[in-house]
Design goal:
Blueprint: E1 13-17, E2 32-38, E3 43-44, E4 49-52, E5 57-60, E6 64-67, H1 69-76, H2 80-89, E7 97-101, H3 105-109, H4 122-135, E8 138-142, H5 146-168
Parallel strand pairs: 1-2, 2-5, 6-7, 7-8
Antiparallel strand pairs: 1-3, 4-5
Keywords: Endonuclease, Hydrolase, Nuclease
GO biological process, one term: DNA metabolic process
Protein name: Restriction endonuclease domain protein
Length: 169
């Protein structure tokens, strides 16, 4: 299968990082997934990447980072430095790195779900996200279920592909 549908800029292939642990399959989206090493993010389209054959690594100019609710809270706390390094890699991209979180914003703010047992106050979370969106090229999307987060990611990848096509015209 090609990287885009014939005569269209809608991707037919999504690159999925090999280190992704709870992968999305996009089986309901009529798209092929290919497991590769991405330098940044968890999901990208081939047309938004350059490939380094020596390291067999794809370097995206747009990608989506998937986070479960627990992963997101860990990125805010214990793995903050590692996550900020990821955010820095997207600083020069034309579009922000999209972080899709598999839990709703309301759940986090109301200390429910994954927040219920964490030692982090919602105000700390809001402050950190505000700082990150001001200092890094990143946008956060909070989606109430894993399935909807997968669909949100697919739509973000399509939107990016369509935007690139429009810019080339």
């Amino acid at each position: 299968m090609g990287e885009t549908r014939h005569g269209s800029s809608i991707p037919s292939t999504i690159l999925r990082d090999t280190r992704e642990q709870r992968t999305w399959t996009f089986e309901r989206c009529a798209v092929e997934t290919r497991d590769v090493t991405l330098s940044t993010g968890d999901y990208a389209v081939p047309t938004a990447c350059t490939h380094d054959p020596e390291s067999d690594t794809y370097h995206p100019r747009f990608a989506v980072e998937r986070k479960s609710g627990d992963d997101f809270l860990t990125a805010l706390t214990w793995e903050r430095d590692r996550f900020c390094s990821e955010l820095r890699r997207a600083t020069e991209w034309p579009q922000p790195l999209a972080v899709v979180v598999e839990t709703s914003w309301e759940t986090l703010l109301q200390n429910r779900g994954c927040m219920a047992w964490r030692d982090i106050h919602p105000n700390q979370m809001v402050g950190t996200l505000s700082t990150w969106t001001r200092h890094y090229n990143v946008v956060f999307r909070f989606v109430e279920s894993r399935r909807r987060a997968e669909l949100c990611t697919f739509l973000l990848l399509i939107r990016h592909s369509l935007r690139r096509r429009r810019e080339k015209i």
